[in-house]
Amino acid sequence: MGNADAKVASGIPILEASGRREVKMWRLSGLLLISSLILLGCSKSDKSTQSKPPAEPNYFPTSVGSHWIYEDEEGDSMLIESVANGTYRSLPVTIMKKTYQPPLDDNPVLYDTLFVWETKNQVTIFEKEVWMYLDSTIYHIFEDSVGQTILNYPLEVGKKWSYYDNEDWEIHVEVLSKETVSTPAGIFEDCYRIFYYWELDRDRHYRWFAPGVGMVKIYDPWNTYTYTLKDYKIK
Q1: pLDDT digits (tens, 9 = 90+) for 87-136
Q2: DSSP character at residue 17
Q3: CB-based contacts of 114: which residues, under 8 Å, 6+ apart?
Q4: How many beta carbons lie within 10 A of that of residue 231, not counting itself?
Q5: For residue 154, is the peptide bond before it cis, meaning its omega torsion is within 30 degrees of 0?
Q6: pTM for the whole structure
């Protein structure tokens, strides 16, 4: 039988040694490629299933259209409204209005505008106060050009920071505790109680912030008032 006949004996092709080696190498390369693809897929799957750290709760929501109504022991109220997005001193801010009711006889009424600048690390408020009589005569205007860093993330009990006011007085801030606060608007858990202290004039006050709601209580022992949240709406 000749060579040509030997290669097709019984109708089955018979490869020479060099041909068999090429087939083995091709098969080996294919197996390596498939294995690499499987490993790559597993790696991607592992990364996609890895747990991400929880996001910091929002303790000062500012979405436009939201409002908060507070009431003190005498029934007087304070309304804070988030009215627009804008800029202040080239910073992106949310503009909020704060008004007090009822106005006090012939005393000037305070119309307070808050420019809230938020970053992932802090909440800073620039404030513009306009004191006006009921006949629209302006009594006094004050504008805060420095800003008050009321929150410094991440919040945790024992954390401290400070900032300076327009007159270069230092205000010290400390997160004192995490509490449940009961108000006319409801019961709020995991509230941070934060202490603000002006060293020179010994002015001080406390604020409670609830996750997803914002400020739910204010206590000012210097001016002897307490505001608690009566009603709110978060957009």
Answers
A1: 999 999 999 999 887 665 556 777 789 999 999 999 999 999 888 777 77
A2: H
A3: 80, 95, 96, 97, 98, 125, 126, 127
A4: 15
A5: yes
A6: 0.73
